[in-house]
């Protein structure tokens, strides 16, 4: 009874009153949370003594920002969102969506003009206003470009949604070319464009695609077969070390060692699979976690073979199928063969296409396998293992093939990683890597290739992009390093995505066969698997 | 096993099967035979060990003792207790359904039926290798498996929903789908664990039709556990009755229906009816036992409410009551015991419990 009364009083209170009340609570909670985190800071002085710095101003700013944000959300945000759901009585139409209000033609034209002007007069403006405001102008320019891109995506959203896979692959194939072209235009020379493209192709393109491939490989084990594997990075390490050792010791080519590393990892996948077959759920997760750590500790301690923590360096580069190499000193160096200017960007672009090819191979095999009996058996195993056995499916071999296939792709990615870095050490294969790969699979939506690719782009690309936010130093001071906050942002992004889409970006499941029409299966019916 | 005729006749032969879980004897020395092309029903009260028998036959449990022989139509013989779990459906061609439905709920109906044809398709796809490179042999086998799936979807009246997730189906349809899925493995013996549980009379009748259709058109023998007597009596050719892990009756539905041991043990009888039966067989002790049992003043009796009397009374009484029930638990054994001991007609007359039925309460009411 008391509850109903209080609810009535709530509805009687005006939104502003309610918003004030909630803002006060939010501010109080923020104060309680941050009083020690932000209000006080410990540091060292010259004589190594602990000093306590008080930052009450900053704390007040954070608390006030929280309270104001809550007030605005409750007083204006919530009524606005509620109104969006109410149709007009006279016309029966819903109010115009937020998207169509935000992306209007006048705003689009203004953004185009602003972006063009800022691009054209970039250098003269910088000289005119000084160095510091020029940073803001660049920020403004970036905002205009982002707005224009968002407008284009918004107006073609139906087309993009319908052809997402094709558009995505096209964009990935054209990415290095576009980067080089844009940067060449910017720097007024192709050599400058190639040099500038290094960062974009290597740090963004290759890095993201390695994680896409790893996550797609893990997707077979976790997403399809429902076996929670926390030690996936072990197979990545096995592939990397297999290539590093065999290439440095025996001088074998990458093209021989790539399948060899995959087979090696698959073999270890089976070896791991055998003892853990009886385990399910949490127990399986813990044993795979231990396996990942065992591999890392062996790599550290087996110094005679792996060179311990120092790692293996001088791993040979990949050659272009033996026809051209990417070592400047070689007689068949690519620039000499093709008579073009020397640049280190060729190798990165070649590696980009190599990992793109490997990713597409992984996707192709995964899609094919899902439509074969073994893939269906994996998914059936995730849904109900006992029913699988009652239908005559050998769950032992089915689980082992899932482990082996997932491990094989991990091994491929590992050998590519070793070739790209030219150096491997056990530090690259810590548990955090396994956790990130698993997080990508979960965020993307278990079993969905597109969702996982998007998740990898957001997670890995997002953390890389934090390095680019140098203008924030102008706001937060020169000591501010945005990349230190990447794990915080990573966690926040995961929490937000899990609240907004609990089954990942793409929660629905694509059926592998159909009689009349292919309809996606809602995530409310699929299961996560219990090992 | 001894004669060839018998061998061909019997598809499943259970000999001296025992299953013990620690000290609990779930099945004790059970022997029965299921004949080829027939529907054999396994019935018994709750906890009689029916599902345990199923789990032993389909390899989910390894029996403590005994032998389970399966004779396939091609003359090969399998000892099911020695086969690994997944080889029983694959090699011995025994398929089963589950009491609590176990469908692949996130997969479509069609996919469920395709998973059931796993072993056949696995061979056709050259254990994945040939299928991965898109060989035509696999495509042909795949098309055939789709046709078989469509056939069983039509039989189960589910073809319109073929592309919906299995978890989206209503309960009755899920039961039919599970049977269709089991049939897609191409079984010679189909074990159904309470297929009619939770079905309404119309769905139950549809299930009967489906089972009769399977029996007549595929030559698959059926072994089923069922509580719904309308299903059991209408479609089964042979009924085996279990109580407390032991067989108490075995025969055609008519003979089982009239078997006093079965009536006493199972067929939905109340205690008062048991009493009548026992009286007919001439049982005094049990009637006395029933007398000491809870009466209307203490138990749920007439008011059907535990709040009717003092709480202590009810609690105290429920203890004694349990003892009484467990002592005379096996009603079939009581019938046996009484039938074996000769009685004089006069005694039987005095034992007639006139007006006793008001004190004895129906068991069903208390549960």
UniProtKB/TrEMBL annotation, chain A:
<feature type="transmembrane region" description="Helical">
    <location>
        <begin position="349"/>
        <end position="369"/>
    </location>
</feature>
<keyword id="KW-0812">Transmembrane</keyword>
<feature type="transmembrane region" description="Helical">
    <location>
        <begin position="233"/>
        <end position="250"/>
    </location>
</feature>
<feature type="transmembrane region" description="Helical">
    <location>
        <begin position="102"/>
        <end position="121"/>
    </location>
</feature>
<dbReference type="InterPro" id="IPR043428">
    <property type="entry name" value="LivM-like"/>
</dbReference>
<protein>
    <submittedName>
        <fullName>High-affinity branched-chain amino acid ABC transporter permease LivM</fullName>
    </submittedName>
</protein>
<feature type="transmembrane region" description="Helical">
    <location>
        <begin position="23"/>
        <end position="40"/>
    </location>
</feature>
<feature type="transmembrane region" description="Helical">
    <location>
        <begin position="256"/>
        <end position="276"/>
    </location>
</feature>
<dbReference type="Pfam" id="PF02653">
    <property type="entry name" value="BPD_transp_2"/>
</dbReference>
<keyword id="KW-1133">Transmembrane helix</keyword>
<feature type="transmembrane region" description="Helical">
    <location>
        <begin position="208"/>
        <end position="228"/>
    </location>
</feature>
<dbReference type="InterPro" id="IPR001851">
    <property type="entry name" value="ABC_transp_permease"/>
</dbReference>
<keyword id="KW-1003">Cell membrane</keyword>
<feature type="domain" description="High-affinity branched-chain amino acid transport system permease LivHM N-terminal">
    <location>
        <begin position="18"/>
        <end position="113"/>
    </location>
</feature>
<feature type="transmembrane region" description="Helical">
    <location>
        <begin position="56"/>
        <end position="76"/>
    </location>
</feature>
<dbReference type="Pfam" id="PF11862">
    <property type="entry name" value="DUF3382"/>
</dbReference>
<keyword id="KW-0472">Membrane</keyword>
<dbReference type="InterPro" id="IPR021807">
    <property type="entry name" value="LivHM_N"/>
</dbReference>
<feature type="transmembrane region" description="Helical">
    <location>
        <begin position="430"/>
        <end position="463"/>
    </location>
</feature>
<feature type="transmembrane region" description="Helical">
    <location>
        <begin position="168"/>
        <end position="188"/>
    </location>
</feature>
<feature type="transmembrane region" description="Helical">
    <location>
        <begin position="136"/>
        <end position="156"/>
    </location>
</feature>
<feature type="transmembrane region" description="Helical">
    <location>
        <begin position="283"/>
        <end position="302"/>
    </location>
</feature>
<feature type="transmembrane region" description="Helical">
    <location>
        <begin position="400"/>
        <end position="418"/>
    </location>
</feature>
């Amino acid at each position: 009874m008391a509850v109903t009364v209080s609810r009535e009083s709530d509805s009687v209170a005006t939104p502003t009153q309610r918003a004030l009340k909630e803002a006060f609570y939010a501010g109080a909670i923020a104060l309680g949370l941050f009083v020690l985190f932000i209000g006080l800071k410990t540091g060292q002085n010259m004589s190594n003594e602990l000093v306590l710095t008080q930052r009450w101003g900053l704390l007040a700013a954070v608390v006030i920002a929280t309270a104001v944000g809550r007030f605005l959300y409750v007083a204006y945000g919530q009524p606005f969102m509620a109104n969006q759901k109410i149709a007009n009585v006279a016309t029966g139409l819903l109010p115009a969506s937020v998207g169509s209000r935000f992306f209007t033609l006048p705003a689009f034209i203004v953004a185009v003009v602003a972006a063009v002007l800022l691009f054209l007069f970039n250098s003269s403006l910088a000289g005119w206003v000084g160095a510091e405001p020029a940073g803001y102008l660049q920020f403004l320019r970036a905002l205009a470009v982002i707005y224009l891109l968002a407008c284009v995506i918004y107006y073609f959203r139906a087309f993009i949604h319908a052809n997402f896979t094709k558009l995505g692959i096209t964009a990935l194939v054209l990415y290095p070319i576009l980067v080089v072209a844009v940067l060449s235009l910017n720097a007024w020379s192709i050599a400058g464009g190639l040099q500038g493209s290094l960062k974009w192709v290597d740090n963004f393109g290759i890095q993201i695609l390695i994680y896409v491939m790893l996550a797609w490989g893990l997707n077979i084990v976790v997403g399809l077969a429902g076996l929670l594997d926390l030690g996936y990075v072990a197979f990545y390490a096995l592939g990397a070390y297999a290539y590093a050792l065999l290439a440095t010791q025996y001088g074998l080519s990458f093209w021989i060692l790539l399948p060899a590393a995959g087979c090696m990892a698959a073999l270890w996948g089976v070896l791991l699979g055998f003892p853990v077959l009886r385990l399910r759920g949490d127990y399986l997760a813990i044993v795979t976690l231990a396996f990942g750590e065992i591999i890392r500790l062996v790599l550290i301690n087996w110094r005679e073979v792996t060179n311990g923590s120092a790692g293996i360096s001088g791993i040979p580069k990949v050659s272009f199928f033996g026809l051209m190499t990417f070592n400047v000193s070689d007689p068949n160096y690519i620039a000499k063969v093709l008579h073009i200017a020397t640049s280190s960007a060729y190798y990165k672009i070649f590696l980009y296409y190599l990992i793109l090819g490997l990713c597409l191979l992984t996707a192709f095999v995964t899609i094919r396998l899902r439509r074969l009996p073994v893939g269906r058996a994996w998914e059936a195993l995730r849904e109900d293992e006992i029913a699988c056995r009652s239908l005559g499916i050998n769950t032992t071999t089915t689980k082992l093939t899932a482990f082996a296939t997932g491990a094989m792709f991990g091994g491929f990615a590992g050998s590519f990683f070793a070739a790209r870095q030219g150096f491997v050490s056990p530090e690259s294969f810590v548990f955090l890597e396994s956790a990130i790969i698993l997080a990508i699979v979960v965020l993307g939506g278990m079993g969905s290739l597109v969702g996982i690719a998007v998740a990898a782009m957001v997670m890995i690309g997002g953390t890389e992009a934090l390095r680019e936010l140098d203008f924030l130093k102008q706001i937060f001071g020169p000591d501010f390093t945005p990349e230190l906050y990447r794990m915080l942002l990573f966690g926040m992004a995961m929490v937000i995505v899990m609240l907004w889409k609990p089954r990942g970006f793409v929660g629905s499941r694509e059926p592998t066969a159909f009689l009349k029409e292919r309809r996606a299966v809602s995530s409310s019916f699929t299961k996560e698997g219990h090992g | 096993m001894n004669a060839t005729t018998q061998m061909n006749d019997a598809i499943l032969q259970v000999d001296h099967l025992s299953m013990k879980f620690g000290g609990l004897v779930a099945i004790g020395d059970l022997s029965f035979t299921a004949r080829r092309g027939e529907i054999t029903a396994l019935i018994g009260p709750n906890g009689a060990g029916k599902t345990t028998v199923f789990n032993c036959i389909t390899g989910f449990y390894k029996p403590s003792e005994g032998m389970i022989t399966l004779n396939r139509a091609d003359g090969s013989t399998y000892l099911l207790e020695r086969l690994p779990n997944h080889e029983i459906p694959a090699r011995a061609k025994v398929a089963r359904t589950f009491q609590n439905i176990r469908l692949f709920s996130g997969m479509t109906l069609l996919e469920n039926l395709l998973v059931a044809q796993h072993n056949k398709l696995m061979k056709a796809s050259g254990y994945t290798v040939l299928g991965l490179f898109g060989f035509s042999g696999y495509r042909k086998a795949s098309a055939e498996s789709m046709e078989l799936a469509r056939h069983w979807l039509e039989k189960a009246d589910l073809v319109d929903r073929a592309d919906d997730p299995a978890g989206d189906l209503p309960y009755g349809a899920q039961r039919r789908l599970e049977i269709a899925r089991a049939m897609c493995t191409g079984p010679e013996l189909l074990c159904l664990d309470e297929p009619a549980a939770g079905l309404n009379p119309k769905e139950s009748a549809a299930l009967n039709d489906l089972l009769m259709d399977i029996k007549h058109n595929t030559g698959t023998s059926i072994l089923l556990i069922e509580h719904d007597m309308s299903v059991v009596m209408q479609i089964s050719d042979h009924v085996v009755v279990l109580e407390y892990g032991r067989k108490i009756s075995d025969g055609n539905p008519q003979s089982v229906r009239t078997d006093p041991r079965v009536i006493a043990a199972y067929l939905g009888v109340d205690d008062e009816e048991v009493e009548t039966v026992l009286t007919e067989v001439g049982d005094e002790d049990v009637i006395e036992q029933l007398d000491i049992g809870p009466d209307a003043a203490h138990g749920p009796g007439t008011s059907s409410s535990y709040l009717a009397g003092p709480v202590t009374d009810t609690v105290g009484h429920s203890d004694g009551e349990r003892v009484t029930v467990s002592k005379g638990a096996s009603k079939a054994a009581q019938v046996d015991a009484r039938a074996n001991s000769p009685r004089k007609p006069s005694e039987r007359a005095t034992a007639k419990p006139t007006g006793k039925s008001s004190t004895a309460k129906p068991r069903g009411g208390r549960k």
